[in-house]
Amino acid sequence: MSENAGTIEYFQPEHLSEGEWTAEPTARACGFDIGTDEVGRRYAVGGVGITVRFEGKVIACMGVVRLWKGVGEAWCFTTQDAVRHPRLLCRAGLWGLDKALGMLELHRVQAHVLMEFKAGLRWASYMGFSQEGVCLSFTADGHDVARFARLA
């Protein structure tokens, strides 16, 4: 899938080493070192993901990792440049989520978003997720997150 100078491809762990992930608050709060192969391998082996590029530069990686039969956890890492391409990001996210639901045979996908990450909260809702509640002191550094779910 492509839109002007934007492209979407299946996620590979090495894509994480290409992004400038300074804009990713949820991952930082959870203690992820996004640029490492360890995080990428965990997500690539256990699920389905996509990488979004604009003019050849990685601006987002996202996907769903299977937790157990029928249930997955959504993840998304964005760069500062991603906010300049909301239409591309939304189309990519919806396309990738549909692919993951089918390929992983899921009936439920859940996601966690920092309560103070307003853009992430809005995006989860746009992607068809419904907020189920708040998980208190959920991250490695004690931040609260909103728990979202999308049913197939």
Note down, in words, how this protein is organized.
- The protein is α+β, with helices and mostly antiparallel strands and 152 residues long.
- It is built from 4 helices and 8 strands; from the N terminus they run ββααβββαβαββ.
- The protein has helices at residues 25-29, 37-46, 86-103, 118-126; strands spanning 2-3, 6-10, 47-54, 57-68, 71-78, 108-114, 130-135, 145-151.
- An 8-stranded mixed β-sheet has the order 1-2-3-4-5-6-8-7.
- A hairpin with a 2-residue loop joins β1 (2-3) and β2 (6-10).
- The radius of gyration is 14 Å and the shape is globular.
- The two termini are 22 Å apart.
- The mean pLDDT is 88.
The neighbouring-strand order within the major sheet is 1-2-3-4-5-6-8-7
Largest sheet: 8 strands, mixed
Please write the string of helix (H) and strand (E) elements: EEHHEEEHEHEE
Please report the number of helical segments: 4
Number of strands: 8
The end-to-end distance, rounded to whole angstroms, is: 22 Å
Percent range for helical residues? 25-40%
Poorly predicted sequence stretches spanning 5 or more consecutive residues: none
The secondary structure category is alpha+beta
Mean pLDDT over the full residue set: 88
Strand content: 35-45%
Cα radius of gyration in angstroms: 14 Å
Tell me, what's the shape?
globular
User: For this entry, what is the oligomeric state of its chains?
Assistant: single chain
